[in-house]
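User: Good morning. I'm curious how zinc ion would be positioned relative to this chain. Could you predict the structure with it bound?
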Amino acid sequence: MTGPSPLLLGDYHVHSTFSDDARSTLAENIAAAHRAGLRTVRLTDHVRASTAWVPEFVAAVASEPVADGLTVLTGVEVKLLDVTGAVDTPADLVVGAGGVDAVVIGDHQFPGTDGPWSPEATKERLAAGLSADDALDLLIEASIRAMEGTPHAQLAHWFSILPKVGLAEEQLGASRLAAWAAAAAATGTIVEVNEKWACPGPDAVRALRAAGARIVASTDSHDAADVGRYDRVAAVLDAAEPEEQA
Ligand SMILES: [Zn+2]
Ligand SMILES: [Zn+2]
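Assistant: Good morning! Here's the predicted structure, ligand included:
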């Protein structure tokens, strides 16, 4: 063993009360990140195309005092919609100076050929003859197009959609993972290993490392008590390490 990964000194996906399903304020999350000894925290809240409060969120984060040694970044979590890689980003979203630092893309529904498919609708299609291979190809194609369409984004809990539709990350196989990881590297995409969903798994992490893509850790916390607290992410990162020589 080589000790805890330095990646665990960051938490790149922390929700505040700007998300209607989260409990802690921006200030509580920043304080929790500092107490947990983190170097970096990305405050990330859910948006949809119609969301109008992003400038308010950015201003609120900028007005919070931050202890020395902690870097506070911002993000908005958008949803992957379909196989074209479209995401539901607010039209007037500013990324970079004066805006959020990154778009965080979540795979909340299955990216279908004609729009997002709910997990139930996807299972019905699989039961009705859509092959697992074709579904996995759709997901990888959508993922790559999303990274190309929104470069320098961050992928949240990627592949969390698979168990929801009765598929498993292990079914992706090396060539799909390699294509996905190569696209992440080529587009400057950051990929989270996510505590809440324990994904992506070790094979995906190895593929990302082989491709030279950037990996971060995240809790996807909805309560400040969870900020920077890792168990499943540490296990995934450990499992992705090459076998130690005897
Ligand atoms: Zn999400
Ligand atoms: Zn989230």
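Helices lie at 26-35, 54-62, 119-127, 132-149, 161-164, 173-187, 202-211, 232-240. The first helix runs from residue 26 to 35.
Let me know if you'd like a different ligand tried.
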